[in-house]
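Protocol step 4 of 6: structure prediction from sequence.
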Amino acid sequence: MTKEFQFVNRCHKDIDYQALESSKLHNMLPFWIFFLVFHCIALLMGIAINTFMATVIIIQCARSRQLPTSCDLLLLALALVNIPLQCCVSGDYLVRFLWHEVYYRLGVWKIFFVLFPIVALSSFWINSWLCVFYCASIVNLSHPLFVNLKRSITTMVPWFILSSTLVSLAIGISVIWSLGTPPPSNSSATNTTSAEAVTEYSIFHKILMCVMGCFVPVVVMFISAVLVFRSLYRHTRQMQQNNTGFTSGPSMAAHKRAAKTLLSLLALYICFDVSLILGITDSTGYVESAKLYLMQSVCILYPFMNSLILISGNPKLKTAALRTFCGSQH
């Protein structure tokens, strides 16, 4: 009698637990729908704004019948890299959300795991080189290394882009050999669980991406921003001593524009770095939580926000955007 009672009691607990889980899923449904719509909108906006930036630069070069300047080349490379980065980040979350079993059982996650380091690291480093270019173009220092950098920055930009792409490609390809293969199983649930257990980077690649993709680019961007703000401060002080208008002159406008762009890029990049490090070092396998959704939102919006900052800080792109979307000439 006691065994029968325990069996019935356990069945009731299982039924209550299933009802509770069903109730939780029902309550979370509006949030999941909102998050799905948010993913789709972010994907479309990211592709649209980066396509717009690349198109404007290509059309301007075609009209002038000249090769793009160093700045335009960096912006064009960023736009072309941010498009697959947006597709990779958004596509990873959308496929995992809509087709969970397909994502794990058919190994779709491996495609995103290999593609992400290639496009993400390329975007990070090209952003860093853009900050270096702004710094070298505006700041005046007497140090021999900086003088040589300032003199040869235009010829170094293509090599910066090429080296960043090749290193990112090598890191992405090396990920293939570190990806695990889930053991075969007749049970689809067991197979999916086994696949989820191996969907994370190796310790070597975690350290490599955190150092090469997060720490070093942030240091480069931070040093560039400090030098630009230092130059802006000294330039402002000099104009004050000479009783010159603070907002007059193209030099001051270029200083302010570069300072705002670098500060915005640095803030955006730090937010993305924190989210990326939390995602890379998470050994629990993407536990559903508020931290996860916040991290995903930052990662998904990064390509769009990155291009938005660059367009607002570039006079030609800003004018083209205002003319295209607002009908304004200024």
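Step 5 (inspection) to follow. The two ends are 86 Å apart (CA to CA).
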